[in-house]
């Protein structure tokens, strides 16, 4: 039950982050530039090191993990383009690169990641209390940006602020449910490592191919570039010193 209690803190962290993004939606391009850096930082400084550690510890196949990373990248790319082809024609779309369905799928994927964040907290406590607390602190720290990213992705893909808030609530609840679920099951190290590779591919796509180009769609400035660097630097600090 300690895992569930700590996961409740992630609810507030996620919701506050999303509320921040919704409150300052008039500066959405600046928020997206920062969010892109955060996403790339999570991949580079959080997910990749964990994948490398798991490969070394269990002698997993690096090629296998990289294969699911590529699958994750290409799967979301395929789904996004398929959605656009089915629901949008160039002559009747304000922006042919963004559609509400893409935002919904992105938000659902992030909620799935948040659920597994909660699973991570629960499994950490299954190892021992110290590991569980450290995992929980890390998750709570970056769930602020998870909430921000959920709202940013919804708004960037032309969803309403009300709909974005509903998906923010889903994202905030997800880690609590994930932590509670570990009372009933466990996940193999191999499956977890493959999941990390798959999710890294998804994050790389939405960060580098979706959010970052949109952040610079109206104008490119040194300020926006600086915000992207700041987002990546923030995750570096969190993963190294928190």
Describe the fold and architecture:
- The protein is mostly helical and 242 residues long.
- 84% of the residues lie in helices and 0% in strands.
- It is built from eight helices and no strands.
- The longest helix is centred in the first third of the chain and has 31 residues.
- It is globular, with a radius of gyration of 18 Å.
What would the keywords be for this entry?
242 residues; mainly alpha; 8 helices
The major sheet is characterized as: none
What would you call the shape? globular
Residues in helix, %: over 70%
Mean pLDDT: 81
How far apart are the termini?
Answer: 23 Å
Tell me the structural class.
Answer: mainly alpha
- Rounded to an integer in angstroms, the radius of gyration calculated over CA atoms is 18 Å
How many runs of DSSP E, i.e. beta strands? 0
* Percentage of residues in strands: under 5%
Question: How many structurally independent domains?
Answer: 1
Helix and strand succession?
HHHHHHHH
The number of helical elements comes to 8
Low-confidence stretches: 84-93
Quick structural gist:
With 242 residues, the protein is an all-alpha fold. It is 84% helix and 0% strand. It contains eight helices and no strands.
